[in-house]
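Students often ask what a 'structure token' actually looks like in practice. Rather than answer in the abstract, let us consider Pseudouridine synthase, a protein of 299 residues. Its sequence is given first.
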Amino acid sequence: MEFTYQYTGQGQQVKYFLKEQGVSKGLLAKIKFQGGKIFVNDHEQNVLFSLAQNDRVTIVIPPEGEHETMLADPTPIEIVYEDAHLLIVNKPAGISSIPAQYHPTGTMANRVKAYYQAQHYEDQVIHVVTRLDRDTSGLMLFAKHGFAHAKLDSQLRKKQVVKKYQALVAGDLSALSAHSEIDLPIARDLTSLLKRKVSEEGKEARTEYWLKQRNSDCALVDIQLHTGRTHQIRVHFSAIGCPLLGDEMYGGPMAFGIRRQALHCCQLQFQHPFTNEPLAFELPLPADMAAVCSAIDKQ
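Now compare that with the structural description of the same chain:
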């Protein structure tokens, strides 16, 4: 894979110029030792070469191959968007994002590997940018090579990747405002390997929400996270007395045909890592949540 940049400065070394383009030391080492190339005006150079104004710098990144230990799962995936650098899929509820020690296959990462193999892509390492809990459905972002992953991770650290969710909640619906923010710190619950809880000793966690629909039994809320704590949405709504439908771990009722936490990643917004184009993607509610919303509408 090749990337070309135009230099407009005066006398900078290649390595410093490429650093400004997001090329890490690790990627430069990969280019140097694993078969990549650096060209300045079509002539091969090293990272110490001093650039002149209007020089054209091209890096050739060697193929990544594949994760030899990652198993491929041929189950089809629903692709929302794809280009040479990005893959966005619609993850169904009930499917984990990545393999675990005792569950090495059946995840979205396994399915994406099989897709890459079927397309005969040179880069077959699976780069997960945004994960979702097993029972959360919706938009999930993969980078198709390490350089794209690094640039997207930089956006994540700067909070430039916006993820929005929809959830169905029950319980004390009088606790819900038309628009509010839940600002409660979250820590591990030491009684469980997985569970989290609101605790003064926890880390900052902020969840903004908008009430969209409601009846006497449940409500649909739009949600935007301003921090990214594990189980944040589930913990926060449980803490205010409005747990998610189907979320047994945090006290949510198994009702209205919902058999998993009623949480869906419906929107994803970020900047394309190479074109800088603003990208925005949206998914409708899955069938189980949409059926509950239809019942709310009828009431």
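One point worth highlighting: DSSP finds six helices and 18 strands in the chain. Ask yourself how you might have guessed this from the sequence alone, and why that guess would often be unreliable.
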